[in-house]
Structures are given as structure tokens and as C-alpha cells.
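Handout, page 2. Input:
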Amino acid sequence: MSGSALGQPNPTAILFFFVFIALTLGITYWAARRTRSTEEFYAAGRSISGFQNGLALAGDYMSAASFLGIAGLVALSGFDGLLYSIGFLVGWPVVMFLVAEPLRNLGKYTFADVVAYRLRQAPVRSAAAVSTLVVVTLYLIAQMVGAGNLIKLLFGLSYEWAVVLVGVVMLAYVLFGGMVATTWVQIVKAVLLLSGAFLLALLVLVRYGLNPLSLFQDAAAKYGEQVLAPGGLVANPIDTLSLSLALMLGTAGLPHILMRFYTVPDARAARTSVSWATLFIGFFYLLTFVLGFGAMTLVGRDPIRAIDKGGNMAAPLLAEALGGTAFLGFISAVAFATILAVVAGLTLSGAAALSHDLWVNVVRQGKAPEKEQLAVARIATLLLGIVAILLGIAFKGQNVAFTVGLAFAIAASGNLPAIVYSVFWRKFTTAGAVGAILVGTLSAVILIYLSPTVQVDILKHASPIFPLKNPGIVSIPLGFLAGYLFSLLSQEKEAEERYREVERRVHLGGD
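Output:
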């Protein structure tokens, strides 16, 4: 495998890349002709079916961290790579039973609509915009750095130009096509990713007589029985629990995922879309396990580390080993499509926080005309696109895999407590909402800065101040506790009286 074509321009990858770009820009042109209002820009006119939204949710959720990162983690760490797969997947029942229907019935474009429904608008929306932008920024860094490295390896472009290229194409989708274009780009990407991963996994299993046990036995024979046992990646049980909590509860607080529930016509379609998304995502994460072990046995750990020490190129290298440079090109183009679709969803949710939450509801106090709202939404999108490009270039060469786990921890610590309390607790107040969001968000950010990931791995200090790599086990209870205590200390009669309306809308809907 030392003669890998990774790192040289790949004609097949470039061809698939341009086919994907042409197809999705065609979708964007069609979507742009339909995007005339803010409802179409943010929520695709609420015209997406449950099945379509399920595929788009899967497309939005299955990021480069999922496809490239987890396959690499399994290839280099064995069984423990499954921790991330399980963590990413088990968050969906939480979304289904706690969040999907109330969100669709109470909100308009962002999760702050739900939290602020019976509370004072300005403080709640300002706090929600802060947490949204922190989560979106951290997620964007990981995607942009991943995109830069991938295109650099495939096209022979410089890293900086690769990041600019991703940013410009993504901006074209979101600026002109809004949520309609973003949804269809995510659907196309989900179909490509599921097909590519399934084909790759099938080719691995064919080598082992379609028997996964033979694959695992081969891995154990080559690297020892420990590859099939826990402890290779996370040895500390409290760290494992903390990471699992963040991944499980974080899904229900991710702004770009929550925003997708406004694209369907009603709460029933929202529930249906979560069922489909769980099915697609569960199938995909089962495949990543086969891909990881396949890369471990058929490519080898040393060749994987030689290309990328974090293991992120395990899946493309496996594709090359099984199908030559043509299949490598196809899988790499799929990985690029993955990044592009996720970046588009993230940018749209960040733009919604800036324009809908801050500009329209805080600065203009809900009185902005439709044309102005749409113009501000596009300006916010442009600003976020430029920020994404600059962040991608600034973090060149950094190992940013931890930022996705951190984004989940912040979403679980700040956003989820505010959503749960606002929907299910009558005595929740404005001070409680602001407290839950800010205490949860800031504690997660501070603890991650004090953790081994930043103090030891990045700043090269001898020991960390906070021992855990992921702060979830501390910051999530802090967010819930802050929401509870601040609400008890600041009774709000009007918010309590409006709770009956919240209950009615949660169960019966109504726009």
C-alpha cells in the first residue's frame, strides 16, 4: 500500500466531484426560483415529506467525522471506535420522544423560537444565538479542515485554495437556494454516502465469505485479541461515560439538526422523519464498523498512519485496496459531498441565529418586513461563509477531531436543558432559560480548555487542570441545575400563565 495514489491528482475523483457540483448547482438554480420568502429560505416552505426529511437529516448528521473519522478510529483502536458510533446513534430516540414534535408545533425557524415562546424574547434569543454560534463555529472548523486536507490529497491543490473552494460552493447553495437547495443537496449526499459505504463494506465482506466473524478473527490474528475488547481508545470509565452522555444528549441540542424539523408540514411528519433518519444512520454506523476492521486487516495500520496519523484516510485507502484508483476517486468524492452538505446546513442554522433571532426579534423587535428579513438572512450567510473559510485556513495542520465532540457537549449542556424545561416545566422563567444556556455553554467551553485535549495535546503542558477529555458529565448537570435554580429565584407569572398555551400547541399543533 506504500504506492497509494492518495496525494496525487485523481482524475476519477475530479470527474465525480464536478458531476456532483453540476448536479447540486442545478438543484440550487431550481431552488432559487422557489425561494422568495423567509419561510422558503429557512424552512423550504414546510413542504418536505417525512421520508425526504429523514434522508436529509441523515445527510446533515453523517458528517466527515462519521465517515472518515469513525472508520479511522476503528482501524487504529479496534472495538473502542464503536463508542462514537453508538453515541452518535442513541441520541435519536431522545430527539424522537422529547424534541421533534414540540419543536415543530411551537417553533418557526430556530430552537430559540421554542424556548422564547412564553418568555421575554430579547434575553432568551440573545443567549440562544451565542450558544448556536459557538456550536456552529466548532463544527465548521472540523468540516473545513477536513475538506481542505481531502481536496489537497485528491486534486493536488494547495490547502488554502481547497478551503476557499469548499466555502464558495457552499455559499452558492445557501445564498441562492436556501433550505430547499440545502435539503436536496443533503438528500443526494445521503444516498451517495449510504450507497458508497454499503458497496465498500460489501467488497470487504466478500473477501471473508460474507462472514463478519472471519473479518474479526483475521483482525485479532494480526493485531491481538485486544482489538476486539474495550480499552484501546478510552481507558478511564468516567471519561467514557462523559463522552457517551455528550454524544447521546447533544444530538437533541444541535441547532442545524433541530432546524430541519421546521421543513415538514406537521408534527406527525417530524416524528416520521426521525424514524427514517434513525434507520438510515443506524445502518450507516454498522457499516463503519466493517469499514474500520476492513481497513485494519486489508490496508494495515502502518500504511494508514503513514498517510494521516489520525487515521482519517482509512476509508479512501480501503477503497483503493479493493477497487483501485477509480473506486478511491468515487469514495473520496462522496467524502467531499459529505463535508459540503454538512457545511451548508451549519451555515444556514448560524445565519438563522444571526438574522431571525438577533436582527428580527431583538434589534427590530419582530417588526422587520419580509424583504428585509430575507436580505439580512443572505448577508448573515455571506458573513458566516467568510468566517468558515478563515477558520479553515487558521486551523491548518491542527488535529480538530475533538471539536465535534465538544460541539455535542455544548449543545447538550446549554441548548437541551432550555428546550426540555421550556416544554415540560410550568415554572420555567426567562432568567432560567438564559442561565441554563449560558452556564451550560460556558462551563463546557471552559472545561474543555482545561482538559487534556487542549492542555496536553495542543498546548503541550505536562498535565491538565481538568482530568476528563469531554466535559459532558459535569457541564450537562450544570446546565440543568442553572435552569432550575435561576427559575426558582425569579418567578414569572406571565410565563407560567402562558404554559397552558404551550401544552395545547405541543399536543395539538397549530401554526
